[in-house]
């Protein structure tokens, strides 16, 4: 399977992603075998408020990269359907015009059920696409929660879409995301207020203290539904990548991988630690103490962690 | 300090919250002493998209509860300011008319810097307010990410605000939140589309399979800026609380506390586990293996977790 994925075959790649998601035995081994072949693709994060035009812009970007002869992967992170395991927004009309193009691979990821693990799942999918030889991988997400922020941190180049007239509240929400933006897009540039928005963004960026090794983000105006401004956006993204490659690319790449390692470590410690607490027959005791409000959750957790990690023993052994 | 907080003194409560946030030694002990006196307040979660009118509605609810002679705490979870440790949106004009009322305690919490720990910080603040004797505690948050969802799960009664004309995309975002809604508010009920929205919500709720012990949410129309519909909202919230009290209150309360215990446990295991890995002088080795793409982050984390937990030793001892 790993071989077929590396050759860029679509079916095996899609199956591997599904298997990873369903935690089918063997899928993890396959990804392990593929991992040394990752790290080649340019990862582009695209984020913005609902209604900012992320999907349309992504679609236009895909078309532009395809014209350059590049192969493209898209990971669309979607708010999940309200009820049941129903339809996911992304598995719909989106990107339909690319559906017969074997150089484009689109994968939607529901946020539901990914309790804080969204960036882990996204990492897996990106790895598969990367190993399968995609030149560009676009990760599209609604720019809101901490989870989405973690996902965006995976990208080499982060594009933040703003639109005129969405109000101050919206701008504020994306606070965390603003800090990792490399390119700003003012989409729906035909709307009233687009120029004002560009000026506001520009003033904001100038007011900000420059950060070392972090070039000031460019601002690009687009009208994604008509396709205007897309070439300028592609050029701005390329310029950012070149600047990065000339600078701190390797260091940032290490940080990205270290962060992924630590996220997995957090999960692994929690899962195994909790299981050990149950095996030690202590779990119910702690749960009861907290439920009766005899012990607060923080203190109970500190004590439970000590037991799980055998810290008494560690201290005794240190003293010896 | 714990005594002063229990007597409902504002200064000490505010200081304790700050100290907990800054991890000042002793603050945690104070909260531990207060914990047995928590569990009395009715926790109301209020969520909705940006621009739905959460702050205005919260302000009106506070006024209504004050008229009933109840004391009120408000935890406003705000998107943080874009740059630096600057002004937090909530510490501003919001709730100004209650600022001289000692029966109202407002605390804003920035989302920035709370990497996945938003619900832990909110839990601390709610505990302090609860122990200080507040009858009602309103937790207000933008209904978007997983973090906010975790925060909402802390509430006894969750109110989800919808407004006409925000589009399908917005509704979809709140998917996770919809599932935990106890009362729906259609705010800005004077706008076109309000009745359609009520009908859509109602249809959606009827289409949903009823869940055991989970009464179908009420829908209340309000115009928060004019104060209309607030009495009906208070009544709906009260009805939900009574139904809960008659039903699965204790069981849900246990679940809430258990979830808080587990969140703290996850943090504690991660922090201590990571520190142990450094003490064992293995950390750099793992980081390097991942950075060179020799080992994938998941496999490296699994191996690191085994080392931290001394699973070899555990297995040897089991075999003996």
List keywords for this structure.
globular, 320 residues, homodimer, alpha/beta, Rossmann fold, 14 helices, 7-stranded parallel β-sheet
Give a written overview of the molecule:
The structure is a homodimer of 320-residue chains. Chain A is globular. Chain A is of the alpha/beta class and 320 residues long. Chain A is built from 14 helices and 7 strands. In chain A, α2 (10-21) packs antiparallel against α5, α5 runs parallel beside α6 and α12 (283-291) packs antiparallel against α13. The longest helix of chain A has 31 residues, at 249-279. The first copy, chain A, folds into 2 domains: 38-247, Rossmann fold (3-Layer(aba) Sandwich); 262-319, no CATH class. The first copy, chain A, is 51% helix and 13% strand. In chain A, α9 links the parallel β6 (183-186) and β7. Chain A has a 7-stranded parallel sheet with strand order 3-2-4-1-5-6-7, sandwiched between helices. The interface between A and B is large, with 89 and 88 residues.
Q: How large is the count of helical segments of chain A?
A: 14
User: Tell me about the biggest sheet of chain A?
Assistant: 7 strands, parallel
Task: Evaluate the radius of gyration of chain A.
Answer: 22 Å
Q: How many β strands of chain A by DSSP? A: 7
For the largest sheet of chain A, list the strands in their spatial order.
3-2-4-1-5-6-7
CATH architecture of the largest domain in chain A: 3-Layer(aba) Sandwich
What's the overall average pLDDT of chain A, rounded?
83
Query: What is the N-to-C succession of helices and strands of chain A?
Result: HHHEHEEHEHEHHEHEHHHHH
**Sheet/helix structural class of chain A:** alpha/beta
| Distance from first to last alpha carbon of chain A | 51 Å
The residue ranges of chain A in which pLDDT falls below 50 over 5 or more consecutive positions are 80-94, 168-173
Write out the CATH superfamily name of the largest domain in chain A: P-loop containing nucleotide triphosphate hydrolases
> What form of chain A results from the Cα inertia axes?
globular
In terms of DSSP E residues, the strand content of chain A is: 5-15%
Could you tell me the CATH topology label of the largest domain in chain A: Rossmann fold
Report the oligomer.
Answer: homodimer
Instruction: Supply the CATH class of the largest domain in chain A.
Output: Alpha Beta
Chain pair sharing the greatest interface? A-B, 89 and 88 residues
How many domains make up the 3D coordinates of chain A? 2
